[in-house]
Structures are given as structure tokens and as C-alpha cells.
UniProtKB/TrEMBL annotation:
Keywords carried by this UniProt record: ATP-binding, Cell membrane, Membrane, Nucleotide-binding, Transport
Organism: Rhodobacter lacus
Record's signal peptide: none
Annotated compartments: Cell inner membrane
Membrane disposition: Peripheral membrane protein
GO molecular function, one term: ATP binding
Protein name: ABC transporter ATP-binding protein
Length: 279
């Protein structure tokens, strides 16, 4: 049985001029200890589908699904209170742009300690000690000093490590990482990805990695879901996807990788789609 199973997920947003469908009938599942990559260009519905799972979409969104089961529990049938007890404890998420995700008015230590107090019921002393352990686990230097820092006093890479520490604070069974290396330089990107994979293996978490970077997918994923315009185009294990992609859009993404360049200019997804009609 899958740890998370979603069937026929649809997300629609109401607007001043009508409505639009951001996610259109997607099926997604992930097993315990598995790394699932959800890949596609910006606007393909990757983040929206996972925010629907987290219950973090705005009131303008309408979410429907035939099934949204986590560890045998139906998320769609839970009360708001039951879902709050689950989200943030057993299912956690690392958001894009870590500096924007942290509250600039509080120290990073206070923000992690708050997660520990609210979700695990730790007192202030125990929460502080656990926060220091988490800072060390994610490789933040001088944790006794950095725990007192505000987000603007830390680098982007350090803020991302804080977000990761916050996400693993409750030993979740499923971690969703939404473009975790966005806006980081190449060296820091590698460090963050290595850290995530180390933590995933150490804690035996299921990991859903949202990305548009096929290189990241090749290095990290067990299985891949390819999305385009809110729909699932293809799903396969990572080796099969790279060696024998079945859908034109998947082939378009792979053709745009630098190592697949054959001329003076990198082919784009649009170039490829012009030669293969996308149904």
C-alpha cells in the first residue's frame, strides 16, 4: 500500500473573469522511503497539486479528488482539526524562496522552537536543545550563534538549511520539497540536494521533490511524474524515463538538456514540440 495515494486530483481557481483549471485529473502516489520527482516547466501545476495535499491553497481554490489517502487515512474526510494534527507533523513541506518563507520579525531559532512546542509539546528548554540538534544535523555552522540570528542575517543557503531543519523537526513520514535549490548558486545547490538525500535515507522518509531540473531528477529520484499544463503526461522509474521516454513532452524536456545539444544553439521545448504534435 502506498504511503500517499491521490486519484483524479483537480484544482480550479475562481477569478474575476471566470475560472481556470490548474490541476486536471492527476494521479500521484509515493511509497514509504521512496523519492518521487514531479517535473515540468513553470505553470504545469506541480506546486499547486502538493499545496492541495497540504491544505494550503487560498479560498479561491476548489479541490476535488476521488481519493487522497495518507497511511490509510482519507485527507478529504478529515476535520480541519484532524488535518492540522497531521500536516506539519507527519507531512511537512519545504517551500520555494526560503528567506521569504521565514518570518523576518523573529529569530530562526524561535521559529523552529515554535514548531517543536506546537507539534511535539516540548517545553522551552527542551525545544531549544532540540533546535540546536537540528541545526547541527543540517550543517549550520556555529549553531549556538546562528540560532539567535534573524533571517536577513543569514545567507540563502543557510536559510534553506533552516527550512529543512524545520521540516524534519517532527520526524515526518513524508517530506515535500518544492524547488529546494531555487535562487541558490550551483555549489550551494549541490550541498542542499546532498543534505536532503542524506536526511531522507537517515530517517527513511518518503520524499516528493518538485523540480524543473532534469539533472536533479537523474541524480535523486526513484520514480518520476512528468506534468504539463496541469496534466500528467508520463510516469516511469527514473532509468526508464531517461532511456526510453514515451511522451513527446518528456522527450522535449530531455532534448533541452545541455548534454543533448547538437548544434550552436540549445533546442528548446518549443522547438521540439513544433516537430512533434502534443495531444
Amino acid at each position: 500500500m502506498s504511503l500517499l495515494s491521490i486519484k483524479n486530483l483537480t484544482v480550479r481557481f475562481a477569478t474575476a473573469t471566470g475560472a481556470f483549471t490548474a490541476v486536471d485529473g492527476i494521479d500521484v502516489s509515493v511509497d514509504k522511503g521512496e523519492v518521487l520527482a514531479i517535473v515540468g516547466e513553470s505553470g504545469s501545476g506541480k506546486s499547486v497539486s502538493m499545496l492541495a495535499v497540504m491544505g494550503l491553497l487560498p479560498d479561491t481554490a476548489t479541490v476535488t479528488a476521488d481519493e487522497m489517502i495518507f497511511d490509510g487515512r482519507d485527507l478529504l474526510k478529515m476535520t480541519a482539526a484532524e488535518r492540522r494534527r497531521l500536516i506539519g507533523r507527519e507531512i511537512t513541506m519545504i517551500f520555494q524562496e526560503p528567506i521569504a518563507s521565514l518570518n523576518p520579525s523573529f529569530t530562526v531559532g524561535f521559529q523552529i522552537e515554535e514548531v517543536l512546542r506546537l507539534n511535539l509539546g516540548l517545553d522551552r528548554r527542551a525545544a531549544h536543545a532540540r533546535a540546536l540538534e537540528l541545526f547541527r544535523a543540517v550543517g549550520i555552522p556555529e549553531p549556538e550563534v546562528k540560532i539567535k540570528a534573524y533571517p536577513h542575517q543569514m545567507s540563502g543557503g543557510q536559510c534553506q538549511r533552516v527550512m529543512i531543519a524545520m521540516a524534519i523537526a517532527t520526524n515526518p513520514r513524508l517530506l515535500i520539497a518544492d524547488e529546494p535549490t531555487t535562487a541558490l548558486d550551483v555549489t550551494i545547490q549541490k550541498q542542499i540536494l546532498d543534505l536532503l538525500m542524506d536526511l531522507q535515507e537517515r530517517y527513511d522518509m518518503a520524499l516528493i521533490l518538485i523540480t524543473h531540473d532534469m539533472g536533479v531528477v537523474a541524480e535523486t529520484a526513484d520514480r518520476v511524474v512528468v506534468q504539463y499544463k496541469g496534466r500528467k503526461m508520463e510516469e516511469a522509474d527514473v532509468l526508464t524515463l531517461f532511456e526510453a521516454p514515451q511522451h513527446p513532452y518528456t522527450r522535449a524536456l530531455l532534448s533541452a538538456l545541455p548534454e543533448n545539444a547538437t548544434g550552436d544553439r540549445l533546442p528548446t521545448v518549443a522547438d521540439f514540440m513544433a516537430s512533434e504534435a502534443l495531444q
